[in-house]
Write a structure and sequence with these properties.
Chain A: Its EC number is 3.6.5.2. The complex is a heterodimer. Chain A has a single domain, classed as P-loop containing nucleotide triphosphate hydrolases (Rossmann fold), CATH 3.40.50. Chain A is 40% helix and 22% strand. Chain A has helices at 21-30, 71-74, 93-97, 99-109, 133-143, 158-185, 187-202, and strands spanning 7-15, 43-52, 55-64, 83-89, 115-121, 146-149. The radius of gyration of chain A is 20 Å and the shape is globular. Chain B has 19 helices and no strands. In chain B, α7 (65-74) packs antiparallel against α8. The longest helix of chain B has 17 residues, at 153-169. The chains are: A alpha/beta, B mainly alpha.
Chain lengths: 212, 285
């Protein structure tokens, strides 16, 4: 069987109940928007393949129930994720305030180098807006995250935000992939690298070229 | 007629001729009598009698905004294609709000769990709000205690029990799920918490609920085992499910044409003895 992708990533959608996580996912994977749909109970996922810099990236996107009590279940899946969407609803101040809680849970349960982006959904509902774009930007900046306002309804910024997170994950893992490649093709080189690091650790002041 | 006669002498039937009642529930309760039967089987009718006026009293209270906010967001997300719940702010959604809110006041320590909404909606399709409320109370407290509580420990524990039962009931399905690291919690959470109301074709849902009200949570386990057996129980079926994604997709969207009402019920009953001798232990028949 021909290989259909080069890399597989897991992304996770987190955020309060009703912010539109499932709708974002449906729009991205199937380009559909259902005004009538059911609440997510437990965990679900969908897949999609993207091409980034000539690399076929298969992404598995996990959708979670937003209600707090489901977190005992959903948290078990944080550690499997390489990228996380923190989603709030621009028409709900409360969902925006809860981003802090979601972010601190991610810090606690997800892998250290997990990539995160902030998403303010329902950007089409301008008349009901409670969270200004500037507030979203500011929070994202404070966390060092990229920020998108999206609308699953009008298909605004959907592909952009998913592609961006996939790119970030790819970048974050590229080093590992490269190191891995080096280790396979050129064992000497890797050994040299390790030696250098060892020296650097033991006597950093003696090594003028080391900036770590 | 049989059912009307049972209704007239309900206590006698339940205490002295329960096996017959069970058999009749397994055959399916006539739809016009279903609401009454569910209330008798669950004892919610008696509960209502003992608590006259309580529901109205609960309705008059304000409620905690923390729960009301989540409940409101869920009202239009239950059976959106059912005529009763399709209209925003329609009667179905209003009644749903009333009983879910009342429950958070009745049991403030439990509050609201999102899986209660589809269960409450099924009840509302059959009976008025007050009756549905007491029936919901019985499901949450008597039939599935702890399923909807903060922490969701009971459902996770039942997931593990379910998986260990599967090992004996259908080793092929068990090995397949294990191979692809598909935890029970990934597919059975919605099945169990919503008592299959989002999973099975409608006629099957009603048959399962008939048996569930009579025999309790073991019906939920058995239906789950039968489903896994039917979805993952043969080499042919597994051939097209070569991956975690394909398997999850199948279990989360069971093709309605693959489930036949009579076969499902028959399987649930046939498998009884096999399950018991295995791990059921102290759970009474």
């Amino acid at each position: 069987m021909a290989k259909q992708y080069d890399v597989l990533f897991r992304l996770l959608l987190l955020g309060d109940s009703g912010v539109g996580k499932t709708c974002l996912l449906c729009r991205f994977t199937d380009n559909e928007f259902h005004p009538s749909h059911i609440s997510t109970i437990g965990v679900d996922f969908k897949m999609k393949t993207l091409e980034i810099d000539g690399i076929k990236v298969r992404i598995q996107i996990w959708d979670t129930a937003g209600q707090e009590r489901y977190q005992t279940i959903t948290k078990q899946y944080y550690r499997r994720a390489q990228g996380i969407f923190l989603v709030y609803d621009i028409t709900s101040e409360r969902s925006f305030q809860h981003i802090m809680k979601w972010a601190s849970d991610v810090d606690e349960y997800a892998p250290d180098k997990v990539q995160k982006i902030l998403v303010g959904n329902k950007s089409d509902e301008e008349q009901k807006r409670q969270v200004a774009t500037a507030q979203g930007n500011k929070l994202a900046k404070a966390y060092g995250m990229d920020f998108f306002e999206t609308s699953a309804f009008t298909n605004h910024n959907i592909t952009e935000s998913f592609t961006r997170l996939a790119e970030l994950v790819l970048q974050a893992n590229k080093k590992d992939l490269d190191v891995l490649r080096v280790s396979i093709n050129d064992k000497l080189n890797l050994a040299a690298l390790e030696e250098e690091e060892g020296v650097c650790d033991s006597s950093s002041d003696a090594q003028k070229t080391c900036w770590c | 007629m049989k059912w009307l006669d049972m209704f007239r002498n309900w206590d006698k039937w339940v205490t002295r001729r329960f096996p017959k009642v069970k058999l009749r529930c397994r055959k399916g309760i006539p739809s016009s009598l279903r609401a009454k039967a569910w209330q008798l089987l669950s004892n919610s009718e008696e509960l209502l009698r003992d608590n006259t006026g309580k529901f109205e009293e609960l309705e008059r209270e304000q409620g905690d905004p923390k729960w009301l906010d989540i409940i409101e967001k869920d009202l239009h997300r239950q059976f959106p294609f059912h005529e009763m719940f399709a209209a925003r702010g329609g009667h179905g959604q209003q009644d749903l709000y009333r009983i879910l809110k009342a429950y958070t006041i009745y049991r403030p320590d439990e509050g609201y769990c999102q899986a209660q909404a589809p269960v409450a909606a099924v009840l509302l399709m059959h009976m008025p709000a007050e009756q549905a409320f007491w029936c919901l109370v019985q499901i949450c407290e008597k039939y599935l205690p702890g399923y909807y509580s903060a922490g969701l420990e009971a459902i996770q524990l039942d997931g593990e029990i379910f998986f260990s039962l599967l090992r004996r009931a259908c080793p092929m399905a068990y090995r397949h799920l294990k191979k692809f690291k598909i935890d029970p919690i990934l597919y059975m959470t919605e099945w169990f918490m919503c008592i299959f109301s989002r999973t099975l074709p409608w006629t099957c849902v009603l048959r399962v609920w008939d048996m569930f009200f009579c025999e309790g949570v073991k019906i939920v386990f058995r239906v789950g085992l039968v489903l896994l057996k039917q979805m993952l129980g043969s080499v042919d079926k597994l051939r097209e499910l070569q991956g975690m994604y394909e398997t999850m997709e199948r279990l989360r969207n069971i093709p309605p044409e693959s489930i036949r009402e009579d076969l499902l019920v028959q399987e649930v009953m046939v498998n009884t003895s096999a399950f018991y001798t295995a791990d059921w232990g102290s759970i009474p028949t």
